[in-house]
Amino acid sequence: MLDIIFHGHSSVQITSGSHSLIIDPFITHNPLAKVKVEDIKVQYVVLTHAHEDHIGDAAAIAKNNDATIVSMVELANYFSWQGVKTHGMNLGGSREFEFGRLKLTQAFHSSGVTLDQDKNIMYMGMPSGLLLTIEGKTIYHAGDTALFGDMKMYGELNRIDLAFLPIGDNYTMGPDDALIAAKWLQAELTVPVHYNTFDLLKQDGQLYVDRLAENGLNGKVVQPGESFTL
């Protein structure tokens, strides 16, 4: 059985027995987060891309736990320079870890770190989504992305038990495109993420879940700090 905690925005923690990982830990500056960085206990930190609202607390959590950051290779290199253990990957690549198998999928977005001291932006490789296979379950975390046609292929090639899809619009898919994505993916359960963190991302998560139900799909609104099992 998998224990899953949603920490708000796009941050998801998944625990399988003694193994735990967190995806896109944005806690400190996340107004919806209910947990403190020092209370997060994981062996892995998995990142989809380099924007601050996804990597914000990655280094701190990794250092606190002697955990490994797993991400696109350029982003992994960036964190390795900060004295953190890392494992770099690339799109389409997969690898077996202690917690299960991880594959990086496409995401249509951008990825860069702003270096405040000289106002430069450092490119951090392509953004990604994630396919996680843990305890025989398949979890798809889309990361930040627009709608794109290969999502249909992901649904055809994988029996997806749980999908996390952004619905916030402006920076990612909005609810209309996320509904199309859910239809293509055909996940057993779809959870909307990346919305309501800030005014610019205001959306009605329950309305999105209701629209899923109208199309024969199972959805669930998960509040920040709420946990569920899979």
Top keywords for this entry?
single chain, 230 residues, alpha/beta, Metallo-beta-lactamase, Chain A, 6-stranded mixed β-sheet, 6 helices, 31% strand, globular, hydrolase, UPF0173_UPF0282_UlaG_hydrolase, RibonucZ/Hydroxyglut_hydro, Metallo-B-lactamas
Describe this structure in words.
21% of the residues lie in helices and 31% in strands. It has 230 residues and is an alpha/beta fold. It has a 7-stranded mixed β-sheet with strand order 6-5-4-3-2-1-15, covered by helices on one side. The protein has one domain: Ribonuclease Z/Hydroxyacylglutathione hydrolase-like (Metallo-beta-lactamase, Chain A, 4-Layer Sandwich). It has helices at 52-55, 58-65, 73-80, 150-157, 175-185, 205-214; strands at residues 3-6, 12-16, 19-23, 44-46, 68-72, 85-89, 94-97, 100-106, 112-115, 120-123, 128-134, 137-141, 162-166, 189-193, 227-229. β12, α4 and β13 (162-166) form a beta-alpha-beta unit. Counteracts the endogenous Pycsar antiviral defense system. Phosphodiesterase that enables metal-dependent hydrolysis of host cyclic nucleotide Pycsar defense signals such as cCMP and cUMP.
Please, how many helices? 6
Query: Looking at the structure, what is the overall shape?
Result: globular
Poorly predicted residue ranges:
none
Arithmetic mean pLDDT: 97
SSE string, helix = H, strand = E? EEEEHHEHEEEEEEEHEHEHE
N-C termini distance = 6 Å
Strand portion: 25-35%
Topology, number of strands: 15
